[in-house]
Design goal:
This protein has about 270 residues and is mostly helical. The chain has one domain (about 1-270): Rhopdopsin 7-helix transmembrane proteins (Up-down Bundle). Helix content is about 70%, strand content about 5%. The chain is built from ten helices and four strands. The protein starts with a helix and ends with a helix.
Length: about 270
């Protein structure tokens, strides 16, 4: 977790620095890129160090009902959800830019991009606030070393709602869009194409598109980090049984590690 925290902080700071220094990389969806980058940076500065500290100190009888644990669980859920939803909409932007290139400017306007960003954060705030209002609950998980949602049968409605709308739907959307992007790239790779600017016109060989396809596949593989976490949480929720401590800890670590991988994948796909 210490290594993941350092990688998350350094990677996201680097991504923010690149966007700050290169105006060519700024687009109408810059707000969405900043959204998931800042969410991952905040995870690397707050939740991951908190988990690392607890895994070393092994606190017993942690007050789950205390304001600190409830606030920590709220921040954990808020940053997790905002990161994956912002990343999903960045994927939608890339899909639109590639597959609807001629009408891209009319589809992704600055106003619509800002509206999407506001709606994403409103959804994430409401979703994270539900356990504080009595629909679901935050508890300290000794196996995950974090304050997180309670994955018990009593909270199954909240867990299912959060998993479906907050995690599974964005993941399936990203996988589907990246799959179609790879399909389009493979079609282009069989024939190559011409690229041009104000001064030159040049031929782009097929291997450039194949390289882009590999990058897209690598990006979609990042989502594998979420699969063990989803499986463990749903298992605990519907069976009422606790998963082995090692399984819970590793699945939570994989999800938190995705915060360190996101900025590098984003830089590769620019």
């Amino acid at each position: 977790m210490v290594v993941s925290s350092l990688a998350s902080v350094c990677g996201n700071l680097l991504l923010l620095l690149v966007l700050l220094l290169n105006k060519e990389l700024r687009s109408d969806t810059l707000g969405l890129v900043l959204s998931f980058s800042l969410s991952d940076l905040a995870l690397g500065l707050s939740t991951i160090p908190f988990g690392a500290h607890n895994s070393l100190s092994q606190p017993s009888g942690y007050p789950s009902t205390g304001a600190f644990c409830q606030g920590s669980g709220f921040i954990f859920l808020l940053l997790q959800t905002s990161s994956i939803h912002s990343l999903t909409w960045v994927t939608v932007d890339k899909f639109t830019e590639i597959c609807f290139a001629l009408s891209y400017r009319s589809i992704w306007t600055p106003g619509r991009s800002r509206a999407v960003l506001v709606l994403v954060w409103l959804f994430c705030l409401v979703n994270a606030a539900l356990p504080l209002l009595g629909f679901g609950s935050y508890v300290y998980s000794e196996s995950r070393f974090l304050c997180c949602p309670s994955f018990t049968p009593e909270n199954r409605y909240f867990v299912v709602l959060w998993m479906l709308l907050g995690i599974v739907a964005p993941i399936l959307t990203m996988c589907s869009l990246y799959g179609y992007i790879v399909y389009v790239a493979s079609k282009q790779a069989r024939r190559g194409t011409f690229m041009y600017n104000e001064l030159h016109c040049f031929y782009v060989p097929a291997n450039n598109y194949l390289r882009s396809s590999i990058v897209m596949i690598t990006t979609s593989c990042l989502l594998v980090c979420w699969l063990p976490y989803i499986s463990v949480c749903l298992y605990e929720t519907f069976t009422g049984q606790q998963s082995p401590d090692v399984t819970s800890a590793l699945s939570a670590w994989l999800v938190l590690t995705s915060a360190a991988l996101n900025p590098w994948i984003t830089c590769m796909t620019q």
